[in-house]
Design goal:
Blueprint lengths: L1 H10 L4 E6 L12 E6 L9 E2 L3 H12 L3 E2 L5 E4 L2 E9 L16 E9 L2 E9 L5 H8 L11 E6 L9 H20 L2 E4 L2 H5 L26 H12 L3 H13 L4 H15 L8 H16 L5 H12 L2 H10 L3 H4 L3 E3 L5 E3 L10 H17 L17 H24 L4
Antiparallel strand pairs: 1-2, 2-3, 4-5, 5-6, 6-9, 6-10, 7-8, 8-9, 11-12
Helix pairs in contact: 2-3, 6-7, 7-13, 7-14, 8-9, 10-13
Length: 417
């Protein structure tokens, strides 16, 4: 395999070949000793393909011969004047696509459009077995499930790009076409995010107990149903920035409620003072000031998030969880996300309370603000707008590992028995 890959490298010098030890080699006899990954594709140099056998190598060879431009964020390719984009349906049954009686071939909808002096012919089609988009799906991990009944948008006669560049031009055309189709005919499509298609599993899955064969006894716990709904929604969402925000909603649920918890504890301390009957007025004034401070409507969201984390998250418990999923070292170091300007997420010291909650809060809250305030014209002093590049989405996926665990712990620790 290694020799064949070197021959491929000689023919296509722009590709990069990476050789790694296979961690499953000693456990399974049919596994190869080494894993080989290829990246460096035109348009999307970060896209990484696992080449494990001769069949995959042959498909990759055939794909590279097409000299295709691969888009970096959504699943699409361009060759000469033709662009093909993979689509998925939203909120309606795919059978509606096949209701037209005059559909003799695979074209469902044909569209004419002028864009930047290009007289475009655009089609929405199915079953593009010979198309270039299918060649991409055949080599991308996770792409095989989209090769049957594929729905795709084809843009023909795209000759001249604008100053925005081919990627933005393609996105502009897609947005215009798909929204008009949805508004006029009630059938909605969206592009497929290439990162969610590949589903690079950066996490080490937790080991769960075997499903019991005998009767088990459980203690009734009164969980907050809204939090479970938020958690399940996050599990369903594929687009990573939205997934992060769904988990963040679980923290946000207690952003004001946690103030009442603090006030309650502090007031109880005052009431139990041995000399409360002597210094009643003084302690009452102290209680009023505590209430004002903790419930001030101008208290920043960042302060509220830290309050929630202090209430529900135990440092050692979170440390052990991240250690189990092999992500403790990652969160113990600073991470930079490349946006309009660098977004730096601070390292977290899990060994002592010190600044633990402050560092944890800043890491979560900075990312939240970056995603929510993704408007490029937003004041950068308040947030660095998040750029959903392949590299940034990969880092975001790891950050989601921690906030997902924090969300679970908040659900558990906020229960009543």
């Amino acid at each position: 395999m290694e020799e064949k890959l070197q021959q491929l490298k000689e023919k296509f010098p722009n590709i990069v070949i990476e050789k790694k030890d296979n961690p499953f080699y000693e456990k399974f006899e049919d596994e190869n000793k080494f894993l080989f990954y290829v990246n460096g594709f035109t348009g999307n140099p970060d896209l990484k393909i696992n080449v494990g056998d001769d069949e995959r190598l042959e498909r990759l060879h055939h794909f590279l011969e097409q000299e295709l431009f691969v888009y970096p964020d959504f699943v699409a390719v361009k060759k000469e004047n033709t662009i093909e984009v993979l689509l998925s349906t939203i909120g309606f049954k795919p059978y509606r696509l096949y209701e037209r009686e005059d559909d003799s071939e695979n074209t469902i909808i044909e569209i004419g459009m002028f864009y930047n002096k290009n007289d475009l012919n655009i089609t929405i089609e199915v079953d593009n077995a010979q198309g270039n988009i299918t060649k991409l799906l055949e080599i991308v991990p996770g792409g095989a499930r989209h090769t049957k009944k594929t729905i795709f948008l084809k843009i023909n006669n795209f000759i001249k790009s604008s100053n925005e560049g081919i990627i933005n031009d393609t996105r502009n055309i897609i947005n215009s076409v798909l929204f008009d189709i949805e508004f006029s005919y009630g059938i909605a499509f969206e592009t497929v995010n290439i990162d969610s298609l590949i589903r690079r599993l950066v996490r080490k899955r937790q080991k769960f107990n075997e499903i019991p064969s005998e009767k088990i006894n459980l203690v009734f716990k009164k969980y907050i149903p809204e939090l479970i709904q938020y958690f399940h929604l996050a599990e369903k969402v594929d687009y990573l920035p939205f997934k992060f925000i769904c988990y963040y909603h679980i923290l946000e649920y207690f952003s004001d409620k946690s103030a009442y918890n603090i006030v309650s504890k502090e007031v109880k301390k005052l009431l139990l003072k041995p000399d409360f009957h002597i210094k009643t007025d003084q302690y009452v004034n102290t209680a009023i000031n505590i209430f004002k401070k903790e419930n001030d409507k101008y208290t920043g969201d960042k302060v509220k998030v830290e309050r929630v984390l202090r209430q529900f998250i135990d440092r050692e418990d979170l440390k052990e969880t991240l250690l189990n999923i092999e992500k403790l070292n990652y969160f113990s170091e600073e991470v930079t996300i490349d946006c309009i300007k660098p977004l730096k997420l601070p390292a977290i010291n899990f060994d002592q309370d010190g600044n633990f909650y402050g560092e944890l809060t800043k890491r979560i809250y900075s990312l939240r603000c970056s995603i929510v305030h993704s408007n490029p014209d937003f004041d950068e002093s308040k947030a660095v707008p998040f750029s959903p590049t392949s590299s940034n989405l990969h880092k975001l996926k790891i950050e989601i590992e921690m906030i997902a665990e924090i969300a679970k712990k908040i659900i558990i620790n906020s229960k009543e028995i």
